[in-house]
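QUALITY CONTROL LOG
STEP: pairwise intake check
CHECKER ROLE: data steward
CRITERIA: each record must contain a sequence immediately followed by its structure tokens, with no blank fields

ENTRY 1 OF 2
RESULT FIELD BELOW
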Amino acid sequence: MLRPVEVCRVSSVLSALILASGLVLGQGAKPANPSTPAPNVAGSTEAVKVPSTVSADTVGLPIDPKIYVIGPEDILRISVWRENDLSGIKGVRPDGKITMPLIGDLQASGLTPERLTAQLKQALSEFVKQPEITVEIIQVNSKNYSITGGVNRPGRYPLVITKTVFEAVNDAGGFREFANEKDIVILRKDGTRLHFNYREFVKGKHADKNIVLENGDTILVKE
């Protein structure tokens, strides 16, 4: 049987061992800091965001470089093979021009990507031997139409390719429950009001009334 003094010594030793083990465990498992953002797959704490004025549904629309006409505020990607200093993202200014290294200001608005490519090749030929250039439209800001009222996805849409009012309604997710399908109004920037009967059109009537949209049109679907 242990004496009272020996019991006290044993209790002190056990308390010291328990305290030491708690310190070791605390040092080996540090809690995660909730304020530290988790890195993405590229190792960055914040994903790169490209500014856009169009909805996600419109990303990837086909742009014909022989037909599409560049306008102010459009965003271009200009690539010059093996010339990184001459390549990059260019925004078309309100005056319709872009600024290029070595060349300076160059008119872009009113040209197709194919025509702008030809002009860039001619201008850069003074500095680069047989330059290979690609011009891409990565964001359309200069041409758009709006649709409002009784559709499922109202909003502004880029007018990248030729589009009719029938196609625009379908792109906007079709009609809501109480939409007036018989009298859709197209408002033009010059104040012109055009009318389209969707119900009659889908029955095969008045095919010539499927209005081709123009830049700045607003489609009003009454409810």
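ENTRY 2 OF 2
RESULT FIELD BELOW
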Amino acid sequence: MDDRAANVGGEGRTAPGGASPSGADVDLVVAACRDQLRPLDSWTTPGGYPDSLSMTMLDAIWAMGARYAITRGVLARYVCSRRAQRADPFHDNVSDLLTEYERHGGVDWFIEEVGTRNRVFSQRGAELKGAVVHQAALAFSELGVDAAQRFIEAQGTPLGEVLEARWRSLPGQRSGISWRYLRMLVGLEDVKPDRMVIRFLEDALNRSVDIEAAVELVRAAAGRLGVGERALDHEIWEFQSGTAGAHDPLTRSRLLREVAHEFLGSAFAGLLEVGVDGVTG
């Protein structure tokens, strides 16, 4: 079963709109939520990285159009690299991320040692995600937004509008899905209208739903249900995917498991390279 990130298109479907949904449509979505999702008191809201704009950027861009297991691997290697320097990656700023790129020898070596060679589009020649993360970090640095708290404070201001415009101008980020996800990862209420969320809404309404309409429908339904937008977004995805927790951001407790997985995977690959493919008695 693919996880959530595999069901996100890099560009997605564009949408005219942002108009408020009809009451009848909201009624149908709320009914679907009550009928198909778990009881409200069992819902959870992913914590994200409220103090780490670097982790947020890595997650937001790497998660688009790829299985989330790939993103977790990138995050685990980044965390491991930062821990080796006795730093706390869960409090890293944009400047820390840029320094990490430099420490690994630049974009190409960062991709080889920490990232992956996944691209923002599947087409040959599309920009590598690791290069786009670096471009995003440079853009935020140029605008004086280094820390997660500064990013949060900028929302709803002219600076916030400039940040969003710069982010959406990056290769593969035009639809704004990753921008909304970026906001969610630092703890802001928003909706990431990926294919899982849109599929749920389309099933409830029995018609097609575009990106902006999806956002407004989830917002309206969350208000009607008395829950946060992030919580409803997450619960819809959990239901649609059938893989509970597969897209939860990397937490400190999960970190050890991910780092161990990365270490064992690397060790096994190394053994194969030297011709050790089994155990002899």
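INTAKE CHECK: passed for both entries
DESCRIPTIVE NOTE, ENTRY 2: The first helix runs from residue 23 to 36.
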